[in-house]
Each structure stands twice: as structure tokens, then as C-alpha cells.
Hints:
By secondary structure, the protein is α/β, with parallel strands linked by helices. It has helices at residues 14-24, 69-86, 108-120, 173-180, 182-197, 204-254; strands at 9-13, 33-41, 46-54, 91-100, 125-134, 141-153, 156-161, 163-167.
Amino acid sequence: xxxxxxxxxxxxxxxxYAVCVQHAxxxxxxxxxxxxxxxxxxxxxxxxxxxxxxxxxxxxxxxRVEISPEQLCTASMHADQLANKLNRPMRVLGWYHSHPHITxxxxxxxxxxxxxxxxxxxxxxxxVFSVFQNNARSRENQIQVTCFQAVQEHSEVERREIELxxxxxxxxxxxxEGIANLPKILIQEEVECHDVQDNGTQDELSAxxxxxxxxxALVHIVCKISRPLCDDLEQRKRTINQRVKELENxxxxxx
Length: 255
């Protein structure tokens, strides 16, 4: 039975939102997933998300994702480390995943998964990022996001939309580390996936074919993810340096 205590609002920093979107855009063939970390105001029933953990997928599926107990434990340890570093009560507040090429609304499986988490934490929240949905007129890639919890409606479990507020912020070091490690996680997923297929029982031609596909997948990660990510971070660095110079000049004028 679900608790009757629900969230009223979720505040998410802009840098966490950027990490989630970047993660969702890494693939249009399978869903991705991660966990959200921050602080919760139980009196106001408000979650303040300021960090996230990108999860490694052991089983890549086009229409579902699963979070193992081990991954949840690892994320909790990461939250404890952040709490000690920032001297704030950080904890795992929710999860996010992507819907490539389909509607943003959570599926029945998503809602059941969310309900399971809420039995452990009534204020746990779920986010869905819909990506690669082309606008019929402009043909541009549309990105949509919904924030939800599960609610008991008579004998059925339904979704309940939660207000999501994106708050301006600069990139914190721990979120920069997360986005910088994204290509490494994707490469590890590809290597493990192809190593499972090449389990030593394949003939020489099949093994060569598998290695070729692995190479193509790794080249795709470097060209389509790592390189643009580096370019984006370099641009951010130039923008920050320019802003520092402007502030230094302003300080000199004030003196």
C-alpha cells in the first residue's frame, strides 16, 4: 500500500538537468538511467536535487531499465561522501531514465517501479526525459521532461505529476566529474556487451565480425559523444575565463 504523503515540488539545479539531458542524448536505441541526489524538506515536501549518479547498464534494452540493489547502495555511498564534503544532509532522492523516440509519459512498468521505490521512501521521485522526438514542422529534436510519483487510485496505481523547477546554477566539480566520466561508462558498457557475445565459442569469422561492431561502437562514442563533450567544456572554460576578466576589470574600476 502506497503512503498518502506526496511531494509538492522538485527543485533541480541547471547543471544536473544538463547532465541528465546529455546522458539521455547518448543513445536513441536504448533507455539510459541514473539516480538523483540532494536534500529534502519533509515539512514542505520539497526535494532539492543538486547532484546525480550516471548508472552503468549491464543489460541494455530499448524499452525498459532496471536499477540493481548494488547500484542503489553505491549511489547512497556517493551521497554520504557528498554530505561529508559539503556538510549537508545529502541522500538519494529519485531516479531518471530516458524515452527515446516515444512519449514522455511513464509506462505502466515505470509507474510500478516508482511505486516500489515509494514503499521505501514516500518522497522518492521519478523523472522521464523524452528525446529524439522530431517536431513535424521544424524536424528538430524535441526534449521533454516529466516529474512524477505513483499514487493509489482505488485498486489501480496511477502517475501523479509533480511540479519541476529548474534553478540557475554553475557546474559544480562533482557534476563535472560525472559528465566527464560518461564516455568511460559508455565504453565499458560496449566492451562488456561484446565480450559476453564473444565468449570463446564463436568461430573465427564470427569473432572478427563481433570485434568490427565493437570498434564501430567505440568510434561512435568518441566521435559523437567524447569530442562534442570536450568542445562544450572548452567553450564553457572560455566563457568562464572571459567572465573572470570582466569581473577583474570591474574590481579595478571600483578601486
